[in-house]
Structures
1.
Amino acid sequence: MKVRYCGAAAVVLVLGVAGCGQSQDGPVTSMPHAQFRQYVGEKERSEGQAAQERELADSSASKSDYETAVARLEKCLARGGISLVKQGWNPVNHQRLDLWYRNPAMSDDEVAAYGDQCHAAHLARVEERYAEENPPWMATALLKEATTCLTKQGVPTSGREKSLPDLVRSAGPDRERNVYECVSKGSATLYPGAPFIIS
């Protein structure tokens, strides 16, 4: 099973998955043991943090910086036998690459914990800065699907929207749920089998 990383991105809605690992029935009564295990050594953490500092030395994070950090993340995961599944830039906002971790021989908790540690060491700070510096914009086809859906529901749009926040502002706070539902439906139509974080 693939496990989505739970790094810096604020998860508002994930299409087709529940949380970052496998869904469970009933209450969760304890923290998975894997969360307490040290998968990434101090040397790798220090080297990864130092690399991120170098990339952010000019107080900026370019697309090249981001992709270089993702390459380090992939190598870190590979050392644990985990593959990085890259689904491209998130079409909802184009601020983050959509990344999944995968190792069928490990539990979801182990994969998620290992991935989170690699992510923190090699990518988290660069990813956060990149998102701060690049305003969100929605893929043209997805924006069209969402606005068509909203129009059918009688939700106002101006035709000048470029992003999810723009759609929410046009619709108004009482119709925010409609916006998220329409973007979700559009994503499912255009990108079947590739759930994206809607944020």
2.
Amino acid sequence: MISYRDVISVLLFGIVYLLYQEISDISTELTVKKEEEKQLLRNVVDLRYRMSFLTDDVQYVKFINDQKKITNENSIGNIYGTLTSALVQLDLIMSHIRKETYLFTNSTLFDSATLHGEVYVSENRKLLSNTDFPSALQGPGLKPLIKYIGVKADKTVSRQEEWRLNFIVKYNITKTLEERDMIFDLSFCKENNTDNLHYGGMYCLSMHAAHIGENLHLLVEKFNHYLHRSTALSPSTQGTTATLGFNVLISGLNGTIVFRDLLSGKEIFAVKSIDFSEPLFIMFGLYNKKSVQSMISLI
């Protein structure tokens, strides 16, 4: 004979099971929503940097037409204006989505005053290039870097800050690279070490791409000690082109900097026990302009 207690137990079990299923469904929906948000942002980011390069191309055509005094009812100017408006709308979408995703970022710009004489920066200070382009600001700046071939960011990172940095690197190898030739560098340096070498690896924390063996590899270096070497990013031969995206998570509170792939979110390498007792300057470098056409775009 089934007791009252058995009936209650079965009913409670049924209720708990239904609640468990409902919680599982909600959890699944939230997970899916989170992944959809991340994927949406990745799609927007991808569209954003593709449109940035398209805008540069249209701006170049407009520049050539202006030089030749070709107006054609200002059609090129209209296209450029439309693209610019679209980029503004994309930035608004990205800033909204970032509030709910791991890609929340600070509005960092390049400090054009620190521009080295071999690199160029756009008027909006979001694009750095090792080759000239229309409307570019050419180095040296008012307070130029002398040894470090690049530029400083306009913000430093202190012990009390936590924020993230997103950027794109695009390169075209025009001449096969030689051993240890570099393409780009991102370094975090104390003020006294910002201009000691052409890159930051020996005196700072550096993530850079260099030719090793037959391919280009991503390296993380701290005070002349290599912490990480990636699998091949691409060949280092003439004709190779590539676009890379990075998301850098910076925590002065925890003393950590984590490098991630921008579109996949996959961690590349995490560096711990970083000294934030002094503000760290963010450095961006581009190299070997005779062999590589390269640019860094902040997004």
3.
Amino acid sequence: MAYVLFKGNQRISLRLEDMRAERISRIFQVNADSLFLTDSANVAVFPLDSGDFCSLDLTDHGHYEVHGSALQADALSPSVSQRSFAFTQRPSSSPMVNFAVPYRRSSTLRSFQRSIHISEIHDGHLVSSRVVVVRFAESEANVPNIMEKIKAAMGNEETYVLTNAQGNEILQSEGTTGSFYWSPNSRKVHAVERAAFTDWQRSRIQSRRVHEASSLQTLKLQIEELLESSKGLESISRQIEEIVATVQGAAQRANLVTVLKDTFMCPICRGTKNISSQNVLTKTL
């Protein structure tokens, strides 16, 4: 990647490795602390805390004007002053050459960004109301840092919970650490206020328990109907009464399945594959 920087009549092309505030300030003789760029749409681009410009903020081969307060004359070293005039010197007999300042390759701090949906809970479903785009480095790609960035973007003291699209909480772990997990925006991530999420989880558990209790009650009624229709068959009635008593004390449906299998198990082959209560009643009658 390369970018064209200019200030007044001075123009230079720099690679991404050279897009550093300290280096640009020396080339254009401006203060590094006040340095920033503007693109063709007059949008300001500032360097990261490390002094590097992020490639996500720049367009390849884009033109950017350099801004910043001028350096004091005594702050310039002789070597820098001599190199600064090299940009205006070009031999008339030679082709156009890019007189960029010699650079030493250095590893730039790469950053990533992703969208986080600030969501609310309506009728038991997550509904996105806002989107926060967070930027992070590789070392910040984990649950605690992402939540801190969301809190800073929202500008409040609320505690948030990160969830996936199904509403399951994303916990900090080895699998959720690193840019490979957080950088793909195809994986939708929601941020829900902790208080609202806790209430939602509680209501989901209560709803699940009510559903399980309702299922057991329905099954109990069906067995009671079977018991009523089997009056006169003493042995079957006794067995079904035992099943009903077991259902009343069962906490899960799995207990009832076990009792039914034990009740109708063939005493010879010890199998239940082709034996059901309906078959037993039909053959008996």
